Every structure is written in C-alpha cells, then in structure tokens.
Amino acid sequence: MTTVPPEGAPVRAQPPRRRRLPREWPRFLVLCLLSLLFLAPVYWMISTSFKTEADAIASPVQWWPAHPTLENYRAVLTSPDGNILRWTWNSLFVALTFTVLHVALCALTAYPLARMRFPGRNAWFWFILSSLMIPGIVTLVPTYIMMLNFGWINSFHALIWPGISGVFGVFLLRQFFVGIPRELEEAARLDGAGNFQILWRIILPLSVPSLVTLAVFAFMGSWNNYLWPLYTVTDVDKMTLPVGITTFSQRYTTEYGKLMAATTLAAVPALVAYLIAQRFLEAGLSTTGLKE
Amino acid sequence: MTTTQAPATHAPPGTRRRGSLEPYLYLLPHAALFFMFTVYPIGYGLYISLHRWDLLNNTQTFVGTEFFRNLFTSGTPQFEFFWRTLWNTTFFTLVSVPLLVAAALGLAALLHRPIFGRTFFRAVFFMPGILTVSVMGILWRWMFDNQIGLVNAARDLMTGAPPIAWLSTEGLAWVPIVVGTIWWTVGFNMTLYLAAMSNIPHSLYEAAALDGATGTQQFRFITWPMLTPITLFVVITTALASFQLFGQSLVITNGGPTRSTQSVIQYITEEGFTNSQISSAAAMGFVFGLMMLVLTAAQFRLMARDVQSAEEK
C-alpha cells in the first residue's frame, strides 16, 4: 500500500498532510456525501430488519426502528420454508472445497509450465489459455446434461467439479512462478531436492501472496455463484445461500422485515470475510494480470 | 542462457528419462478435468444443438441446423424473444458501461491523492461488490419498491411528488437495475484505476505544477492519457460482464414488465430449463457465445501482451 513513507522522509509525512486538510475540504465533503449514498441501502436493510412489520412500511419512513425487535430474525431462522444456517453451511462447504481443490490443481499445473522444460510446454499453455476465450454460456447446456447423466443434479458435485479446471488460476500462478529467481531452485537441487520438494518447499512458500489472491477469487466466485446452482440444485436442503435467499424472498415478498433480516443474515458472512481479507483482496486486484 | 546447461551438468544419470515424463504427470490431473469439463462440453453442445433432445425419453433425433435456422427465421418465438432479449442486454451494456467507467474513474480521482479517511472511503465504495447478486437484487428491488421503497419515500420527502411505479413501468424498470449494478460493481473498477494511478510517475505532476498547471489540467493532460491502457481494459471487461447480465434483472424485475428487462441469458435458461427446449437453448448459447467471442478476443489480446512482457523478463 501507499502508506509506506519514501526513503529519507519517514517522520515528516504526518504534519503536512494534516495541514493540507482544510484546503481539501470540498473533496472531503463530496466523498462523505457519496459514502452516505453508498451506505444508505445497507443501513436501510439492517434497520428494517429490526422493525416491526407495521413500522417497516410506515409512511413517512422511519429512519430508526421505533419498536426494535428481534422477531424477524427469530422468524427467519426458524422458518419452515428453508434454513438460512443450512444454506450458509452449504455455501461454505462448497466454496471451501472448491477453493482448496482449485488452488492445488492450478499450482500443480502452473509449476511445470513455469519452471520445467519439456516438449509441448508452450503449446499446452497456449491451448488451455485459449479456453479463456470460450464464453461460459456455450458450455452451460451441455454441462447441465452431463450433470443429469452423472446423476449429479441436486448434489454438491455439480457445484464443485465443472469449474475446478478453470484456467485463469493457472495463468496467474504461472506468471508468478516464472518470476522466482532460479538461484534458489538450483541451490536446493544441489542439495538433492526433487521437483516436488522444490515446488513444496521453495516455490509455494514464496508464492503465498498470489496463492491467497487466487484462493480469495476462487472462494468469492464459488460463494457468489448464482446461475448454475439455481438450476442444478433445487432441493431446499441442498441450496446454497444465494439461491436459498431468493426462494425465501419469493415466498415472503411482502413481509419486508423478515426479508431484510434474511438478506442481512446472508450478507454477514461476506462482510466479515471482507473485513478479514480486505488487504489481500484489494492488493490482489491491483496486481492481477494488470501491469500497465 | 546459462540455465539450459544446468540440468545436464548437475543431473545424475538416470534422472533424465524420469525427468522427461515428470512434467506431464503434474499436468495430468488438470488436463483430465479440463478435457472433461471444458473441451468435451463444447463438442457435446454442438451435438445437442443439432439434435432434438427429449429429456423425458432420453431420445435424440438429428435435425441438423433447424434450431440455428429458427433463430434467423422471423415468426418463431425463438427468433422474437432471442433478439429482443439480446437487444435488452445490449441496451443495458450501452447504458451501464459508460456510467460504470466514468463513476469508477471519478471515485478513483477523488481518492487518489491522500485525504483524511481515505481507507474508509475506499472500503465503502468497494464493499457492496462482495454481496451476492441475490442480496443486492432483493435490496434494490425494495429500495425501488413501487409503494414504500426508499427512493419513492425520499422523492416524496423532498418534492412531495407521488410515488413512481419503477418496477412495473417499461423503460423505468431499467433504473433500479442500472443503479443497483453501479452501486454493486463500481468499486472493482475504482480499485483498478487507483492501482493504475499510483503507477503514474510523480515527477510528471511535479513538473506540471511547476509550470502552473491546475488540478483539472493535470488530470486532462497527464492522468487521462496515462490511463488509456487501463481504460481500454476496464471498458472491455465491464462490457463483457454487462453482457452476462442475469441475476440483477432476474431478482429485481424478474425480466418484466413483459420481458422488457429480460436478459438474453435469462431467456436461454428459460428456454432450456423451464421450457425443456434443451437443443434450442444450446443453439442460442452458441450464437450468443460467438458474439461474445469477439469481445473476449479483445480482452485476450490485452492479457497476451502481459504474458509476453512476463516472458521477456
């Protein structure tokens, strides 16, 4: 991040910035207003989730719950039409399994592509990379039929396997692996280390930032996936959170308090994860395949 | 290169043969899954689209290009709805991409130079993007609710105007979808812009400031030109993402009123999974996929350039 002071000016960075603040107040004000606009929907969601049904639709609007209640949360968590905790667990299980398998698979593939010499290396790399050009919609229907044939409809297999051989992760890790200095590898090789040991002991530990970036992307992708689980998993008990929450909203379309309690509950895991992973996420975003 | 000789010198005899097979063993698991879930489905999809697929009886009759021809023969429902929903999606892309790029650039420009609370602001603009599309959709459907939505309430509060039926008026139904999408995704592009801006050499600004250039002039003559490559990238990726419109319109308006906000992907899934017209949906997937290929190729070129620059290191 940019907060690291440049060499030779470590202590002096603070006071000038503070003195500059008054001159910057229009920009600061604009940012505050925009932030309010951005936060308003989230505030509205959370505050409504604590309102009674009458207060939720009261006119004029109630900015603050007049009769705060946890009833909506109780109703949502014990709803017979679907268990939000169950959906969260399903999403978590699917996303974690997917992430671990995907990152391992990508690392295993990126390693020889980046650090070994063998016939067909570049051809294979460009071949799999070219699949990034195939839009997902092309394989949607055939993959669905495959899931039917495998008996994987309404099973987590359908949510985990089809995307596991994604190529972007291979690309990302290969680009990172290529940049690791040869000397480290050669020293280990002199000590008798094999290829796998070099991958495990040298390449992977040095690649933690890019591995974490890939893991965050993979996890978020799986966690937020909506279209595919919508059609492949229709058993209420096996739904993931994004799908479950929309079936819930279709059923309770006029009970706003409950609806907002449900969406708040669905948003919480993502918010918590974001607060934990924020640094990785934004740092990863700003370095991923973009070096202009 | 010195590295090419290293293995020959250091490798003990015998490892050479093993070494020649080893890379392929590393590639094997991914390759197997890649063939199964990427290469094979493409061919299988073509096969499906050339047959009439009956899910109930599991029988297939070869019909040739009938389902492709349907898409280009006026009068069929496929013709009417495919092109209509494709236009809807294109319209959404044409409206949302300029807004998303401009808003991202604007936010990045506001946040680029140090300011009190910068990390907080960045987080606020980025955060909506972590919500799933269904949470975002439910939230914005309610914000624009015809009767008691916050948008109508705020309008009432400020101007006393009667509520607007956002969700059920053709044309207006796009407003919640576009506004929701901007709120949801602008932080992503903003972050890309911020990263690109921090790569612009400071000396350029210092020189410009010495010459008496104003902030606006500095933006116009330094920041904007230096950002051209990233802008190109942002426009292409945002357009690609906009053409994938699905969840927002499905959750906010359910494609209504009267299919006016239905996206082409929603129509394809409806045709395939709701109407069980599997082959027809597969054919549409191919046709729409081919169109997307052009955009994807442009993005791919930008990425390929990046691979090359890494190769040259």
Compute the CA-based radius of gyration of chain B. 26 Å
Shape descriptor of chain B? globular
Chain pair sharing the greatest interface: A-B, 101 and 102 residues
User: How many DSSP-defined strands of chain B?
Assistant: 2
Low-confidence stretches of chain A: 1-15
Helix and strand composition category of chain B: mainly alpha
Question: How much helicity do the residues of chain A have?
Answer: 55-70%
> From N to C, what is the helix and strand string of chain B?
HHEEHHHHHHHHHHHH
Q: Mean of residue pLDDT of chain A?
A: 86
Give me the side-by-side strand order of the main sheet of chain B.
1-2
Helix content of chain B: over 70%
Describe this structure in words.
The complex is a heterodimer of chains A (292) and B (313). Chain A has 292 residues and is mainly α. Chain A has helices at residues 14-20, 25-49, 53-56, 71-77, 84-115, 121-130, 137-150, 156-160, 168-178, 182-190, 195-206, 208-224, 227-232, 241-251, 256-287. In chain A, α2 (25-49) crosses α15 (256-287). The two termini of chain A are 18 Å apart. Chain B has 313 residues and is an all-alpha fold. Chain B is globular. Chain B has a two-stranded antiparallel ribbon. The two termini of chain B are 13 Å apart. Helices cover 72% and strands 3% of the residues of chain B. Chain B has 14 helices and two strands; from the N terminus they run ααββαααααααααααα. Chains A and B meet through α2, α5, α6, α7 and α9 of A and α1, α2, α4, α5 and α6 of B.
